[in-house]
Write a structure and sequence with these properties.
Radius of gyration: 20 Å
Structural class: alpha+beta
Strand order of the largest sheet: 2-3-1-4
Helix content: 55-70%
Shape: elongated
Amino acid sequence: MIWLQVKKCSVVLIGALLNAIGMNLFLIPANVYASGFAGIAQLLSKVLAQYASIHLSMGTLLLILNIPVTILGWVKVGKSFTLFSFISVFFSSIFLQIIPVKEVSHDILLNAVFGGVIVAVGVGFTLKWGASTGGIDIIAMVLSRMKDKPVGSYIFALNSFIILTAGYLYGWEKSLYTLVALYTSTRVIDAIHTRHAKLTAMIVTKKADELKKAIYAKLVRGITTVPAKGAFTNETKELMMIVITRYELFDLERIIKEVDPNAFTNIMETASVVGFFRRD
């Protein structure tokens, strides 16, 4: 268990480093904006310096913006997810301060594409290991649980705000290149993790009661159970169906592996959900 946490922390640190490299060597020098709170911090840093003569680095603003969100996530989402997400934000802020802002290429399109890819690789592996890069991910999860609407719709709304604000203040050409960076990031994250915001897990197990207790202790999700029987062995089992967000996939896989390593699990992409899928 300790070794697993060490590996998870290492992945989060590498993700934070890649995020800072993508920002400081590609996106920031080209004035192309990132997604989520990183993009908001990038915009705020420039606006405060230009219009109020207040010079705050992007790393500092990113950390400040995430403090209230971390408190919200600790209460509403889960302690482990929020803790590792804050670790990601904290070290991203440090790496953004340490790594110099340097223009690697003069081509704005190359900066948008490579910056988006590098940031996305860090984000994708961070998500794959059950954490996030903080900010909008946590807010989207909280809102999704309250309203049972897709996580992606909230992330899209914030990113649209960043693009429109950047376009209004600094020219619409920058917004178009920001769209290129966001699209590239999204495609890479989808390839590493999963493109669907919601997933359905079908679990065939002989330890349904133990699994239910373990899942309920970690996730706020409803479970439907159906009696099942092995066609070859004629053993009596149970089929458990649970709909989760992509942010919860890592935790669910860990729970199944710990409680019943012999369980058969099928993870399916879920296009849409009608009705509530959380546990009241």
